[in-house]
Write a structure and sequence with these properties.
This protein is an alpha/beta fold and about 220 residues long. It has a domain at about 15-60 and about 125-220: Rossmann fold, CATH 3.40.50.2020. The chain is about 35% helix and about 25% strand. It contains seven helices and seven strands; from the N terminus they run H-E-H-E-E-E-H-H-E-H-E-H-E-H. The protein has helices at about 15-25, 45-55, 95-100, 105-125, 150-160, 175-180, 210-220, and strands spanning about 35-40, 55-70, 70-80, 85-90, 135-140, 165-170, 185-190. It has a seven-stranded mixed β-sheet, with helices on both faces. A hairpin with a 2-residue loop joins strand 3 and strand 4. Helix 1 (about 15-25) crosses helix 2 (about 45-55). The longest helix is centred in the middle third of the chain and has 22 residues, at about 105-125. The radius of gyration is 17 Å and the shape is globular. The mean pLDDT is about 90.
Length: about 220
């Protein structure tokens, strides 16, 4: 990172985060073989700004966390879906704990519900006419990572879909999540890796929820 390109302590909003990441992704500008995929929901404005500044195609990739029963802050797995491809990634350690604490029927019910929600999200905001990714450079963008679960599922999905090169770009993430994702991709970019991390939202001045119409405006369906 050059001295002129120093990450702030926080971003004003997701668009500003995308603007910052685009600088580190300049080598992909106008590359017809590169495509930007934003993780739903919060990754979309970040990805859209990256794509606009680089002159690249952009699309949405559906993700869903599988959380512990009665503990929505703890994910034991994550799913990702794009086109005809779907992936499920368990979080080591947390998944083992979930199996010890809960009956298989309970965890299966969580997975079933998550799959239904993922299918609904994909139908509404992604659709069937997705951009081709096989053999291409896929730049996966999110608003940030906490555990990294959804990004890991997205990376696995792109591998299965035949992406030629996978680049992951996020505005903020703790060191442990960065280390896990970085080891699985061809290039990893994270603007802020704080010593103390509580939540992604803490690194944004504005972190509003995104309505369906806002996402569709940024990544219109054909």
């Amino acid at each position: 990172m050059t001295p002129e390109h120093i990450a702030p302590t926080r971003f004003s909003d997701r668009t500003a985060a995308g603007e910052f990441l685009a600088i580190d992704l300049q080598k992909y500008a106008q590359d017809p073989n590169a495509v930007v995929l934003g993780l739903l929901r919060g990754g979309i404005p970040v990805a859209a700004e990256v794509a606009t500044r680089l002159g690249l195609e952009v699309d949405a990739l559906a993700v869903r966390r599988l959380v512990m029963p009665e503990r929505t802050d703890i994910a034991f797995a994550a799913m990702a879906a794009y086109g005809e491809h779907t992936s499920l990634k368990y979080i080591e350690g947390v998944w083992d704990s979930a199996q010890l604490r809960f009956d298989k029927e309970i965890l299966d019910a969580v997975e079933t519900r998550a799959r239904q929600e993922l299918d609904e999200l994909r139908a509404l905001l992604v659709g069937e006419n997705v951009l081709p990714v096989a053999g291409r450079t896929v730049i996966l963008v999110d608003e940030g990572m906490a555990s990294g679960a959804t990004m890991l599922a997205a990376v696995e999905l792109m591998r299965e879909a035949g992406a030629g090169r996978i680049v992951t770009a996020v505005p903020v993430a703790p060191a442990v999540a960065c280390k896990e994702v970085e080891s699985l991709v061809d290039e990893f970019i994270c603007a802020i890796t704080p010593r103390v991390f509580h939540s992604v939202s803490a690194f944004y001045s504005r972190f509003d929820s995104l309505a369906d119409y806002e996402i569709l405006a940024l990544v219109p369906r054909s």
